[in-house]
Amino acid sequence: MAAISALAYQKPDMIYDMFITKEVNNSGIYAIQFYINGARKVVHVDDYLPTQPNFYGSNLIMGSSKDPGELWIPLIEKAWAKLHGSYCQIEGGNPTSVFTHMSNTPSIYLPHKQHEMAEEVTKMQIWQKISHAFKMDCVMTSCAGTHAYGLLACRSIADENIVHIRNPWGNRAFPQQLQQAS
Predict the structure, then answer these.
(1) What is the pLDDT of residues 1-27, one digit of tens each?
(2) Distance CA 30, CA 60 (A)
């Protein structure tokens, strides 16, 4: 979800281009393309999506949009799950490879936990890599435990380095005072 969220926020045309079937249709069948080892792979899914009952009817169990009429998020997630065998197989994981499979562009993993690094890396070095990646218009995510977040922006304000992240399951933004300061 973090990869979908970050890609949709920064490069919505890439999400649009994943869909071979561009319009809602009566058959409820959609073709979505991914790239596996650089080769285009088209995955066909229907619009029967997993739901759970609630007081008002039912909600989608997996990814969804604030707009209940938008199908692109659950359709991409369903196609990704089909490609991997089930929804259980796509829970968690590293979003780095998801970018490559969604966009056919290279991606890298930048370790930022001490136990993952071969050598001592300072916070400033990590900050320089992040800020350089934003200048190069790269799409980024970051993992904290088993949850991933989209990195939407970075700024230095009053000698503080700030990264704007997006929780794909939420909708919080920069606090107002930081928006005004930038």
Answers:
(1) 677 777 777 788 988 999 999 988 899
(2) 18
In this structure, are residues 51 and 59 in contact, taking their beta carbons and an 8 Å threshold? Answer: yes
pTM score: 0.72
Residue type, 142: S
Question: Could you give the CA distance from residue 151 to residue 107 in angstroms, rounded to a whole number?
Answer: 14
Would you list the domain boundaries of the chain? 2-103, 114-181
CA distance 101 to 37: 8
Residue 114 CB-density burial (10 A; 0-12 exposed, 13-18 middle, 19+ buried): exposed
For residue 18, give Cα distances in angstroms to 45, 95, 129, 137.
13, 17, 28, 19
* Beta-carbon contacts of residue 11 (< 8 Å; ≥ 6 apart): 103, 139
114 to each of 21, 25, 41, 121, 146, how far by Cα in Å?
A: 44, 50, 37, 8, 17
* Helix extents (H) in the chain: 2-10, 12-18, 72-84, 95-103, 123-135, 176-181
> 52: exposed, middle or buried (C-beta count within 10 Å: 0-12, 13-18, 19+)?
exposed
